[in-house]
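Recap from last week: sequence in, structure out.
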Amino acid sequence: MRKGTTGPAWEVGDELEGHVLSPVTRLQLIKYAGASGDFNPIHTVDEAAEEAGLPGVIAHGMLTLATMGLLFSPYLEYGYVKELKARFSGMVFLGDELYIGGRVVEAEDEGEGNLYTFEVSTRRGVDVVAAGTVGFLVFKS
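Predicted structure tokens:
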């Protein structure tokens, strides 16, 4: 990726700098429940998770999905996330350390800027727990 005064100029195959996130905590899930309005107790109460047949409290799926957006935070002064599509393939538990990463799979010129399509994923160890695509539009200068 080249970066000038007008922002990033990615090429197909470029990878975003991946990140290892801090382990998931109960406090993080409680705060997310309050912010999102999702108070399903399987996300915060051990007994409720066990009654639902889970081995323990699980993170909100939308919180897991939101982690992928962190990849684009350093570039928000140059554009915005235009589209996000994802699919969940695993659960995230307390103490899990997640890795987020992405790479450019398509680049095209649009009227208002350059649209880059990224394949993105959130992994727990080698297991992918969420994956999808992000369309990031970089404004023309």
